[in-house]
Known about the structure:
3-stranded antiparallel β-sheet, 45% helix, mainly alpha
Amino acid sequence: MPDWRQESQYAFTERLSREQWAWEFLRRNPDYRREWAAFRSTWLELEAAYGRAPNRDFCQWKLDPRAWVAAEACPEGDCRIDGDKVLIECAMGARWGFYKYPPDPADDDPVGMQRLAWREVTHEVSILGDGEARCSGSARLAVCFDLSLPLREQIDQAKRRLQIEQRRRAKAGDVQLQTVKTLAPRWRRYLRLLDALDEGVADEAIVRLLYGGDADRLATDRAEARGLCQGGYRELLRLPEH
Length: 242
């Protein structure tokens, strides 16, 4: 990883896409690192027993219990064999939100080299119950639909109204539109923080170098950075680039 003390070593992040940003946070997840190390050890054992692709004996490989997990343990996993088993590489990818062979955390850019493809992320729309007429926060807005009437026209009108309100609130400074470009400076600081924490650097040194002595910002950033490592990285895939 880069030297967290040197901001210049993070200049590469200025060119990252949302998919690449997601990888930067995932590769810093300690649980992913541990699971990858265990996965890689098992994979090498299987290769020693049955050979490497494209010459491996896959018929014997897939019979080895080390090569698969039960389908019920990973229902979203691809690469099923015999209908009730999922190959371990596909199961691991499904757990962490991607396709293809699990990348080494030391791999700088599996996305750009097309060794990693993220699974689609969908956004669940909240439906307010009876009597819930308000949403909290300046970035949220409730819209009422009449379910006894056709929805298409209502949805089109709601979209136009929401776009107008979004522009108005953004212009007034009440809402910051979240894009990769606007959030990149914050994420860059998060990466430096995570790398410092991974080195075991004392909080006092981090506060002095990254936050100008503001310990409260460290506490906030630590929670947000770890949240991005521990699953929030997938939410980055929903953001527009600009």
